[in-house]
Structure formats: C-alpha cells, structure tokens
Specification:
The complex is a heterotrimer of chains A (254), B (221) and C (231).
Chain A (H helix, E strand, L loop, with lengths): L1 H18 L5 H23 L13 H27 L3 H33 L7 H22 L3 H30 L13 H36 L9 H10 L1
Helix pairs in contact in A: 1-2, 1-7, 2-7, 3-4, 3-6, 3-7, 4-5, 4-7, 5-6
Chain B lengths: L11 E10 L2 E11 L5 E4 L6 H8 L7 E6 L2 E2 L4 H7 E4 L11 H11 L5 H12 L14 H14 L4 E5 L7 H16 L3 E5 L3 H7 L2 E6 L2 E3 L2
Parallel strand pairs in B: 3-8, 3-9, 6-7, 7-8
Antiparallel strand pairs in B: 1-2, 1-4, 4-5, 9-10
Helix pairs in contact in B: 3-4, 3-5, 4-5
Chain C lengths: L8 H18 L1 H21 L4 H6 L1 H25 L3 H7 L4 H31 L7 H26 L5 H12 L1 H16 L6 H27 L2
Classes of the chains: A mainly alpha (254), B alpha/beta (221), C mainly alpha (231).
C-alpha cells in the first residue's frame, strides 16, 4: 500500500499530466512539482531520520539524487531523439534533442555540485575519482561539447544531423566510461555511498524524484518551444513551400 | 514543356523541386524536363540557383522537397547509379593541392577501377595540354591550368552526362577556345552536356535547349 | 576504351589510404612539425612535474599518451582540412567512392600516423623518464596500436564535423577528449604495465577493454560517418 502511494501514484499522475493533459502541462507541472517537492523535501528535511553514519548531512541526498536521475532521463531523451532524427529528420525531433541536452546538462551540473557539497563533510574532500563522479564530470564536458557544436554550426540541417551523430556517440560512451573507471578504480579503495534501501528514506526520495522529473519536463517543454521558434526564424519550414505569390513578393524585395 | 518524343527517359526531370539554405529558397518548386539527347544551357544571375541545380543533378545535394531524376533514376534513392553516369565540373576544383597533376588523376583512375591508370592519366593530360610541369604540386598551378586538370578529371569518368558550372571562368581567350573544343567533342561523342555560364554566346552555339533561372524559378530568358 | 566499373569498398579504402600516405609523404615538413610538437610536450611534462624521477618514471605511460593525444588533434584536423580545401571530399563522394571506404582510409591512415609518432616518442620517453620496457616489444606495440586506433576512429568522425564548423580548432578537442577517456585510461594502464611489469597478469583485461572500445567505435564510425559527410 505504501509502495503504491509513494512510488506508483505520483508517477501515474505525472504521466497523465504529460500525455493527456499535454496542452496545459506548463500550468499543471509547476503545481505538481510544488506539491511533490513540498511534501518530499518537507519530509526529507524534518521528518525522516538522519543517516546512521553521516547524520543530517545525508539529507542533501533528497536533492542530489533526484537531480542526477532527472539529468539521466533527459539525456536518454536526447539519445532517443538523436537516433530518431537520423531515421526521420524533423525539426521537432531536433528541437527536443536540443532542449533535453540543455536541461540534462543543467540538472547534471546541479547534481554534481550538490554531490561535491555532500562530499566535503562526509569524505573530507570536494572531489574523488569514484566511477560515478568521474563519469558525471565527463558527461558534463561531453554535453557541453554537444551544445558548443550546436552553437558553432550555422546551417540548420547540418547542425541537426551532426549533433545527432555526436549525441549518439556521447550517449554510447557514457556506460563505457563508467565501466572503465570502475575497473580502473577497482584496484584502489572505493568510497562508499549511502544505501537508499531504508524505508524511512524512500518516501521523501521518491516524491523528490518525481518533483525533479516534473521540473525537468517543464524546463524541457519550455526550451523545446524556444528551440522551435528559433528554427522557424532560421528556416522557412517545409510546410511553407514557396508559392507563386510568395515568389512575386520576394522578387520585389530583391 | 512537351513530353519527350523518343522512348528514352528524359536526361533530367525535375518534379516540383525546392532547395532551401536556412531561410533562403535557392530553388523554388522548379519543374523541368530535358529530353534525352539534348544539351542544356543554364543561365541566370549569380544566386539564381544554377549551381544549386547542377549540384542537385550531380547528387552532391539532396532536394528539400520534390524529386530529381537523372536518366530515369532518382538522385536520392539511386544515388550511386547516378553518380556513375554523371560528372560535375564545379567552382571548386576537387584537386589535392599537394599532389601533382598525374597523381591527382591517378587517384580517380584507381577509384574508378580503370586498368593501367598511369596510361589513362598521361593520355588525358596530353589531351588537355598539361604535359609540362608534371611533377609540380597543383598548389603551383595557375587558375587556367587547374581548370584544365579539372576537366581532365571529368573526362576520365567517361560520363553519360557532363555538368559544367562556369567552365569558362578564369580562362584566357585561348583557354576559352580550348574549352569550347572539348565541350564540342563531348557533345559529338554523345554526352549530354548541361552548361551554366554567363558567356551566353558560347552557350547558345553549344546547346540546343535553354533554361533561364531567376530566384530559383524558371523564367523566360 | 574501357568504361569504369565500380570497385569494392576495401579496394577503394586502399586507394584512398595510398592517396593520404602520398600526401603525407609529399608534405613531410608537416610531419616533422608534428613530431617536434609531441616531443616538446613530453619535455614540458618533465619540467612541469619537477625532477622527482620516481614520479616521472611511474607516470611515463600517461605522459606519452597525453603527448600522442595532443598531437592527434593536430593530425586529425590536418587530415580533413586537406579534403575540404577545394571540396575534394565532394570529388570523392561523387566519383563515386563509398563513404565507408573514405572513413576506413582516414581512420587507418591516422592510426598509422599516430603509431609512427608513438614509435618515435617511445625511445625519447625511455631516455627522459628513465623507464625500461619490461614486457617486451610485442606488448608495447599492441598497446600502441590499440590505443592509436581508439583515438583515430572517433577522431575522424569528429574531425569531419569540426572542419565544417566555426571555431574548428577548439571544437575537435572539445568533442574528442571526453569521449576517449576510457581508451586513454586503458592505454595508459596498459603502458604502465608494459613499462613496469605485470605481476598480476592484468594486461590481458586492459587489452580486452581497448579491443572492445575499438570495436564499438570503429563500428559506430562506419555507420555514422556517411551521415556526416553527405549533404
């Protein structure tokens, strides 16, 4: 029963908001996020017990973990769009790829930053070379490269094709990086991270995760709209094939 | 446009072809058919879409909308087949600056699978009058010499259709005359020539059909 | 006279590789500059990291691979600049030459160049950092070849993209460096074992990682490179 309410119900609601209620997502998502974040962080900060080993510092997990998960979801969306674009070019796919990469990068950076802040009191250092952190850092640079590429290519079709290629390669690379760093580190002592199995942690964590997902979805939707209008400004969209009337107008201008 | 009188597919057939660069439509809903065996003169101001049209026919580009057929084959789905029949002489020379004339030709000869590439290369160099300075890199060539080497490259392919984008550009009067001779020889050997040029006089003597473009559309000349 | 017939992909790759090697030979001065660049990188590491010979010795493999990595951005960029001058890439596409053959020839050519570079740097590294090649030439060469292959394949895909974008000199390393981290890790680790000995017999697993990485990236390059160069 507990699992049903905390894990499944908010998820179902979120999916409904994103699919059926798509038109009003920009209104409903902030409300959803506010509610789930309010409850999630409220419980996480004040009600849930402190960690046995780390104490209250562990509570940053309720922001750090959801941020990273949301980033990963966004980057998976980017991968999906990159593959989809190569099979069926469309400006919508390209705009969604751009939006999800940016939001993924943002949430990823926030996640890494929070992880760093968490690390100082718990491990004594801001940074360590454990597989997850290392992969996260490389991921940030890789997607900064992706966004830089988008900035530096002027032709919209080429930009879409090339960023799809780069997006695919970057996404395929991430698991490889994780494995190789894990292997690399396996010779050295691995820092432990908190186990999130304790039931008391689950409710705030789940709600916070949904909250962050909703926020990520909201940001992606807005960014997608911005990207689509940028495309419209750059490109005479195929729907607007030039008619004779249009030609007469432009002939006058030129 | 009349339907082609013979049973062969048209040399080129453009069906409602549009090509966009960013916001600018280089070609706008162009429909045109060149009957088999006829040569075409392509005219129009700079920016009217001549180069884009030639590149579309050459399969260097794919159309944003519409369909381009060359010798009955679609340039997008049948790309390789078209590429084997068609050769393009472009503004860019396709030449490696650091290789010599012979070496440049031999790369293509080998790619085409020609037997004795060295002989083929020498023959072509003689034909276009580039027999001296055989070892110098192309970097040291004049514009006219590059043009001659570029046309040699085109001739090597023995194309069914030759697309010539401003072939007389950067040539002196002697060079222009030599180029006219080569184009005439191409035509005589049954190659369909599509020629884009500002030198309308030369173009009209060489070509039977004419297509005048303005802002990506066909207009009366 | 004979009408041209299409040749197979591998043969086309061979022709194009020959062309690239010929261009490299005719512009040897560029190669020399590349070697000197890599050499000075190796030197600079020893200055930057101080005279602690133990430290230099332990990390020699890493410095070598960094030098090769930095040099690769130059060589990869140059390899494709040659194609985009005069639109030679278009000339190849329209010949027609199979885009996958172009990829193969570029990737193999750049691998060869980097292996050659590595081969020239190793004696310098041995001298500068006071290391010995404990495991023998075979393992050394395997490490070198696998690592250079892992740099060259994705490097070619990215160099083709970067050459057509603005800020091309910055874009190539920015795209490439995060990507090749696993290869760099594995190659450095393997090189360290080759130079210092492998008591726990780990070299095989690092070769395995490098091999797997190569398989994935040459495969991806094969599939994606045509999309990169077609218009």
């Amino acid at each position: 029963m507990f699992i049903l309410t905390t894990a499944v119900l908010p998820g179902v609601i979120l999916i409904l908001l994103l699919t059926v209620g798509r038109k009003y997502a920009h209104l409903t998502l902030p409300v959803y996020a506010l509610i789930t974040l309010g409850i999630g962080h409220g419980v996480g900060l004040f009600v849930a017990p402190p960690d046995r080993e780390m104490g209250d510092v562990q509570r940053i997990m309720y922001a750090h973990v959801p941020a990273v998960w949301s980033a990963l979801v966004a980057l998976v969306i980017n991968f999906g769009c990159s593959v989809a674009y190569l099979f069926n070019p469309s400006w919508k796919t390209d705009s969604l790829a751009e939006a999800s990469a940016e939001v993924g990068l943002l949430f990823g950076a926030v996640g890494v930053l929070l992880g760093s802040i968490w690390g100082k009191p718990t491990w004594g250092v801001y940074w360590t070379w454990d597989p997850r952190l290392t992969t996260a850092a490389i991921m940030l640079v890789a997607y900064m490269g992706y966004l830089a590429l988008r900035r530096f290519v002027e032709d919209p079709e080429k930009r879409a094709t090339w960023s799809s290629v780069v997006g695919i390669i970057a996404a395929v690379d991430l698991p490889i990086i994780w494995f190789s760093v894990k292997w690399w580190r396996s010779l050295h002592q691995v820092q432990s991270s908190p186990k999130t199995t304790d039931v008391a942690f689950q409710l705030p964590l789940r709600l916070s995760s949904y909250a962050f997902l909703a926020l990520a979805a909201l940001f992606i939707i807005h960014r997608y709209r911005i990207a689509m209008s940028e495309r419209k400004a750059e490109v005479a969209l195929p729907e607007a094939l030039p008619t004779d009337a249009q030609a007469n107008r432009t002939a006058g201008v030129m | 446009m009349e339907a082609p009188a013979n049973a062969l597919p048209p040399a080129i057939a453009l069906h409602d072809v549009s090509k966009r660069y960013g916001r600018h439509w280089a070609l706008a809903r162009l429909t045109y058919s060149l009957p088999s065996g006829r040569s075409l003169l392509l005219t129009g101001h700079n920016g009217s879409g001549k180069t884009t049209l030639l590149r579309l026919v050459a399969t260097a580009l794919s159309p944003t909308a519409g369909r381009v057929e060359v010798l009955g084959r679609n340039t997008v789905t049948d790309q390789d087949a078209v590429r084997q029949e068609v050769a393009l002489l472009s503004h860019a020379s396709f030449l490696y600056e650091d290789l010599s004339a012979v070496q440049n030709l031999m790369v293509l000869a080998r790619l085409l699978g020609l037997p004795s590439p060295g002989d083929v290369a020498s023959e072509l160099l003689t034909r276009v009058g580039l027999t001296r300075r055989t070892d110098s890199p192309v970097r040291q060539f004049s514009a006219g010499m590059r043009k001659r080497l570029a046309i040699a490259r085109l001739l090597m392919k023995k194309p069914t259709m030759a697309l010539l984008d401003e072939p007389f550009g950067e040539l002196d009067p002697a060079g222009i005359q030599a180029m006219e001779v080569i184009i005439g020889e191409l035509k005589a050997s049954g190659v369909t020539v599509i020629l884009a040029t500002h030198l309308i006089e030369q173009g009209l003597t060489l070509c039977e059909e004419r297509l005048h473009l303005q802002e990506g559309r066909a207009v009366p000349a | 006279m004979s009408r041209p017939r299409p040749i197979g992909m591998l043969r086309a790759a061979g022709v194009l590789l020959g062309k690239d090697l010929l261009i490299e030979w005719r512009t040897r001065a560029r190669l020399n500059a590349l070697v000197f660049f890599a050499l000075s990188t190796l030197l600079l590491f020893s200055f930057a990291l101080g005279p602690d010979t133990k430290l230099l010795e332990r990390n020699a493999g890493g410095y070598l691979w960094l030098a090769i990595l930095f040099a690769s951005t130059l060589s990869l960029g140059e390899s494709f600049r040659v194609e985009y001058e005069n639109a030679c890439m278009d000339g190849l596409r329209l010949a027609p030459a199979d885009a996958r053959a172009i990829f193969l020839s570029k990737a193999v050519g750049n691998t060869l160049l980097l292996v050659l570079l590595g081969g020239l740097l190793i004696p310098v590294m041995v001298a500068l950092y006071g290391v010995k090649v404990v495991l023998g030439v075979g393992d050394l060469l395997t490490t070198l070849v696998l690592g250079c292959m892992a740099l060259a394949a994705p490097g070619c895909v990215y160099a083709a993209i970067a050459n057509n974008a603005r800020a091309r000199d910055v874009l190539l390393p920015l795209l490439l460096f995060p990507l090749i981290v696993p290869a760099l890790l594995a190659a450095t680790k393997a090189m360290a074992l080759v130079l210092q000995g492998d008591p726990m017999d780990q070299l095989g697993s690092w070769f395995g990682l490098l091999g797997g990485f190569n398989l994935i990236y040459w495969g991806l390059g094969f599939v994606l490179f045509p999309r990169v160069i077609e218009d």
